[in-house]
Design brief:
Chain lengths: ~200, ~700
């Protein structure tokens, strides 16, 4: 029997697992480290090498039990429902709740994802954020997608608070008028985009 | 005498006039001042008379490091250089510059905590230090050469492990805006011409010894690991620049750029920086990429790796490889630097043909960096470039130059953002050629005087960042409100203090910053959001005092104030707390001299007060509030005429700033009317002799 190293920092991808539950734990942790939420069928496919729908009952049952154990015995492994009710798994040791939220939002309405991110930034830091940030993970939008989202937002009441400001360098920033005044948002955008580089 | 760890134990004194080389005991003479700026100020108080000018043989240069230099403490590679500052205007006063690189560690390994240079050689020389063997050598073969060639030549003699601190042609030609530089890209501005005035081309040092740590080895290693765990990216930004799986917060303004998909594109093989979970201490060096931070996304594909000072995992000097710059301009394709160095060339220009973050901006960076770092030209924290832009675009250059000289520059190239313009401008600064080159090389104060321009105009223009005495601000009200302004009143050059800005720019939400502020300075109101300032309060005065003392502490221990203090951390499980006792823990274990945070802060205060005392003595006035701690007009001005404290404006209220100075002086125990420290304050920090001397001179309040 292989002894499992319980220190999550010592994860090794090449480790062979005799205990299916531990294999699930490590799969989820690896996913979280890399910024990925797992669904049950994805774990099944990767660990059992077959589609969950096609697996025989016994194997499926063993997997379900192992997954249950993984959650019960490892406090960092969490289960969270997505927009359509599907369950997702992550390790809170490696993935924080804000990132989970972004990933779940990403599976839903992209307009809402952008708007909620903008609102959150305007409310808590507070600051406007550059449009370009949505090109980064976990958003991974293309320039065209961002422009299209913004175009659509303009037509919907729900997003009336989402406003833009453009810096002297031509960079577009977004903010929520529910949390920042236009004047303050434009000063902050100018500071982030131009000012801070002139004050290194 | 008790034996201490940390310090090398000896201070080297080299008199270039009579070629006398002598040794002093660090502990006996300087322990109460730690090292670095502390030793520098002590030497200047004791030995350099008021009225001495920067280029007089009686001026000295003190290269000094502290007990943590060369140890395993993170970010320990800074050398403090103290001298009479040639760009301080209208009267040169004491100042310090700081260079990173490997010089500090090498000096310690050779057995020295400091080098005091005095006198003037009768012909160009360089100093060779190989452990105990110290010689003054003829520099005929390297005089006239750039810093790069000088470094290569001296490394050939001393070996590639030697660290060479050299000046370029700018320093030789006594251009006040000049640097000394070691380890390819680590410079200290303002010092080059003082070395040049002494006919000192370079100091090359090779040490084969080590530093002993007084404390228990395991405990020391545990402490280093603990310190590493609190590090953020450069400038102690503790949250990543974009959302990462592990991170609760992110900040697009953070220097923590590492992320999935971001890679060092010019390394072979290409290295992806990845999410860089803060618990993975082996990946700290991947967090920062200052080339991408300053030059834009485009720099990723040109990034080779990070580089930096001895013992620093941050590697804030990013190495980039730009083949197109080499092909077009005949410069080396690889270069590296951080902040000011990366910005040197590009900041002369208002625009580039492909935008401010395109390839031309990177090429301008490369051209400027290679030339400035070879000629040894200083930017005075960007004031050179800001002055240049204003003088050109307002037609002043055209008015002040003769037609022939004006036409000798390709202004069309300049306006188009063609980096080759720098080949016309920079050599003329280094060689004092023509009126423009000569004037720009003087530094702002003397330049304005030469051209009959009024300093008060400079003090009105918020775009110039100009502060006072020939120098710009260094993190003032643009981000830290009244606290930043107070800090900028205190020095004789730009303040170079990062303690406060590292905190407010750390990327944590305001609410978290306020929670930490309450723990450190007793009230959450010590910090405001950027551009959402509130009236002065005692927390801000405490923060200013703490920031200044930590700066001096770092400059004396040889910790990098571009990183510390470490009062915030990236660690959620610590509630983003750092540790305000890191410095005292490191000092205690390294030296064996047990000091609490408060005791060490008292020494920092002693050092800071000695700087104040020298300034008062050399200005021959106690009226510091009126004559020294001044604030430029633009701080009180809003172009849109909004009331102060309106969100979105950074200007402050003059009356409130008077109160701020009152509160700061009170925190410091200084006289509020004059801004001069009292006898009792000097006595409390162990400077009673200094107080007596000032009293004799009528310079106590
Ligand atoms: S942060 Fe940069 S300047 Fe400071 S010690 Fe590290 S490498 Fe040197």
């Amino acid at each position: 029997m292989i002894k499992y190293d319980e220190n999550p920092a010592n994860l090794s991808e090449t480790r062979q697992y005799e205990d299916l539950s531990m294999a699930i734990v490590y799969k989820i942790r690896e996913g979280s480290k890399a910024g990925r939420l797992y669904q049950k069928d994805e774990i099944y496919l990767e660990l059992m090498g077959e589609d969950i729908q096609e697996g025989d009952d016994e194997r499926r049952k063993a997997f379900e039990e192992a997954l249950k154990r993984a959650i019960e015995e490892h406090s960092d492994i969490k289960e969270v429902p997505g927009a359509g009710g599907a369950l997702f798994y992550y390790s809170e040791e490696y993935m924080g709740e804000p990132y989970v939220r972004l990933l779940l939002q990403k599976q839903g309405d992209p307009l809402l994802l952008i708007a909620e991110t903008v609102r959150d930034n305007s409310a808590s830091y507070p600051r406007p954020i550059p449009l370009n940030m949505f090109k980064n993970p976990p958003f991974d939008f293309s320039e065209e997608e961002i422009i299209e989202c913004l175009r659509q937002m303009e037509t919907k009441d729900l997003f009336r608070d989402i406003a833009r400001t453009v810096t002297s360098a031509g960079t577009v920033f977004l903010y929520s008028t529910s949390h920042l005044t236009p004047d303050y948002a434009s000063m902050l955008a100018e500071w982030f985009d131009v000012g801070q580089f002139e004050n290194p | 005498m008790k034996k201490y760890g940390g310090w090398a134990g000896k201070v080297l004194r080299v008199n270039l006039s009579d070629r006398k080389i002598s040794i002093e005991d660090t502990i006996e003479k300087y322990r109460d001042f730690l090292g670095g700026t502390g030793i520098g100020y002590k030497v200047f108080w004791d030995e350099v008379l008021p009225g001495t000018k920067p280029f007089d043989p009686e001026n000295k240069i003190v290269f000094a490091v502290g007990p943590l230099a060369g140890t395993g403490a993170p970010c320990n590679g800074r050398t403090a250089i103290t001298t009479l500052w040639p760009t301080c205007w209208p009267k040169a006063l004491i100042g310090t510059g700081h260079m990173g690189g490997n010089f500090a560690a090498e000096l310690k390994y050779a057995g020295y905590d400091a080098i005091i240079i005095e006198g003037k050689a009768n012909k160009p020389v360089w100093i060779s230090i190989v452990d105990e063997k110290v010689t003054i050598n003829d520099a005929g073969h390297i005089w006239g050469q750039g810093i790069r060639r000088t470094t290569i030549e001296l490394s050939r003699i001393l070996g590639s492990e030697a660290s060479v601190a050299a000046i370029g042609q700018a320093g030789e030609n006594l251009v006040p805006m000049s640097v000394v530089m070691n380890s390819y890209s680590h410079s200290a501005g303002g010092v080059g011409a003082v070395m040049g005035s002494k006919n000192l081309k370079a100091i090359a040092v090779r040490g084969t010894g080590g530093i002993s740590i007084a404390g228990n080895r395991e405990e020391w290693e545990r402490l280093i690991k603990y310190h590493l765990s609190l590090l953020g990216a450069n400038n102690q930004h503790v949250v990543p620049n974009s959302p990462q799986p592990w991170a609760e917060f992110y900040d697009p303004a953070s220097r923590w750029l590492a992320s999935k998909g971001r890679a060092w594109g010019a390394s072979s093989p290409v290295i992806e920086t990845g999410p860089c979970d803060p618990r993975d201490l082996n990946r700290i060096a991947y967090r920062t990429n200052n080339a991408a931070f300053y030059l834009g996304e485009i720099a990723w594909k040109y990034t080779v790796r990070g580089s930096g000072c001895t013992g620093c995992p941050i590697r804030c000097h990013t190495m980039i490889k730009i083949p197109s710059a080499a092909a077009k301009y005949g410069i080396p394709e690889i270069g590296m630097n951080t902040c000011g160095g990366l910005n040197f060339g590009r900041s002369f220009f208002r625009n580039f043909p492909d935008g401010m973050r395109g390839l031309t901006n990177v090429e301008a960076c490369m051209v400027g960096m290679h030339m400035a770092d070879d000629y040894g030209i200083w930017c005075n924290y960007g004031q050179l470039q800001r002055d240049f832009q204003k003088l050109y675009y307002e037609g002043i250059i055209k008015n002040k130059l003769g037609e022939k000289e004006f036409k000798s520059y390709s202004w069309d190239k300049y306006e188009k953002g063609d980096p080759s313009f720098l080949f016309e401008l920079l050599p003329r600064i280094a060689f004092k050629e023509g009126e423009l080159g000569t004037a720009l090389g003087l530094g702002t104060g003397a330049h304005l005087e030469r051209w009959g321009l009024s300093e008060s105009e400079w003090k009105k223009d918020p775009k110039l960042n100009y502060w006072k005495m020939g120098h710009p601000k260094h993190h003032s009200n643009e981000e830290v409100g009244q606290c930043g302004v107070i800090i900028n009143t205190q020095y004789n050059r730009d303040a170079q203090c990062h303690s406060h800005t590292n905190f407010v720019r750390n990327g944590l939400p305001l609410e978290v910053q306020k929670r930490l502020a309450e723990e450190i300075w007793g009230t959450p109101d010590a910090v405001d959001g950027v551009g959402a300032y509130t009236p002065m309060n005692v927390g801000k005065a405490r923060m200013a005092k703490w920031s200044l003392l930590r700066k001096e502490l770092h400059d004396s221990l040889s910790l990098c104030n571009w990183m510390g203090p470490w009062v915030a951390s990236p660690l959620k499980n610590r509630n983003y707390r750092g540790d305000d006792t890191i410095e005292s823990m490191l000092y205690t274990l390294a030296t064996g001299d047990r000091k609490s945070r408060e005791e060490l802060d008292l020494i920092a205060e002693r050092i800071f007060l000695l700087h104040r005392a020298i300034t008062i003595r050399d200005m021959n006035t106690k009226e510091m509030r009126k004559e020294h701690d001044t604030i430029p007009d633009w701080v009180f001005y809003d172009p849109q005429k909004r009331p102060v404290y309106t969100k979105g404006t950074i200007h402050l209220d003059p009356k409130d700033m008077e109160l701020a100075m009152d509160m700061f002086y009170q925190e410091m125990g200084w006289d509020r009317t004059t801004g001069a420290p009292t006898y009792e304050t000097y006595r409390k920090v162990g400077l009673e002799e200094v107080a007596k001397e000032l009293k004799k001179r009528g310079l106590l309040p």
